[in-house]
């Protein structure tokens, strides 16, 4: 991977650095700072995944982190045969392996790679999920992600991706933005002595907007797509299928 271009917060090497430094405290921070909403949204992401026959199904978890979505996935679809999880961060990878050792019943293989550069085989997945892995991509990277989703799904295969979003138009939006951009950096400074990495997550989230742009890109790739808002648009998701 090349050195990050100065100031480019979407450079994969820069993003990898942010998550490598966050990885030790990511699970606790994500739960407490979202007041449990991230767990609820991971569960909802799995609920909207159109997977009619999960027995023997194989698929991908992109931007998998430490495997936060796996408990939801295997609880709802115990018949899943295999998940290939992809994440760029070595720190997240290390902690994902700890999770795998703790739960020997998870059928997961972990690949440490830039998902957009990875050579996942075409028409190889019955399903694809991704939770909170969209915000660190810019629109050009979202277009590449849409192509990747369309390419790796088998005909009839389902996908669901969810991300924290900017709840435009919601009357409590100013409070939400204050939480993201005011309270979270303050918590990080006070308790985590971090390099403002969790604060970057707030910046990525507000830059991201919502998943409606990605929905259009996925449609342009020939996929059937449903766009949803979760909790007044504080998260948005895209789900659907590759037509059979
Ligand atoms: C906010 S975390 C989400 C982790 C997990 N899916 C969850 O539900 O909490 C975003 C993850 O995306 C990963 N990531 C960012 N850019 C990536 C890329 N280009 N390829 C693979 N993983 C990437 C980061 O390393 C990080 O682990």
Helix content: 40-55%
Number of DSSP E strands:
7
- The residue-averaged pLDDT reads 90
Please give the largest β-sheet. Answer: 7 strands, mixed
Span between N and C termini?
36 Å
User: How do the strands line up in the largest sheet?
Assistant: 3-2-1-4-5-7-6
Strand-residue fraction? 15-25%
What's the shape?
globular
Number of helices: 9
Pattern of helices and strands: HHHEHEHEEHEHHHEE
The secondary structure category is alpha/beta
List all distinct small molecules, including ions and cofactors, that are bound in this structure.
Answer: S-adenosylmethionine
> Which consecutive residue ranges, at least 5 long each, have pLDDT under 50?
none
> How large, in whole angstroms, is the Cα Rg?
17 Å
Quick tags:
244 residues, seven-stranded mixed sheet, 7 strands, 20% strand
Outline:
With 244 residues, the protein is α/β, with parallel strands linked by helices. 43% of the residues lie in helices and 20% in strands.
Structure description:
By secondary structure, this protein is an alpha/beta fold. A seven-stranded mixed sheet has the order 3-2-1-4-5-7-6, sandwiched between helices. The longest helix has 20 residues. The termini are far apart. The model has no long low-confidence stretch (mean pLDDT 90). The structure holds S-adenosylmethionine (SAM). S-adenosylmethionine (SAM) binds next to helix 1 and strand 2.
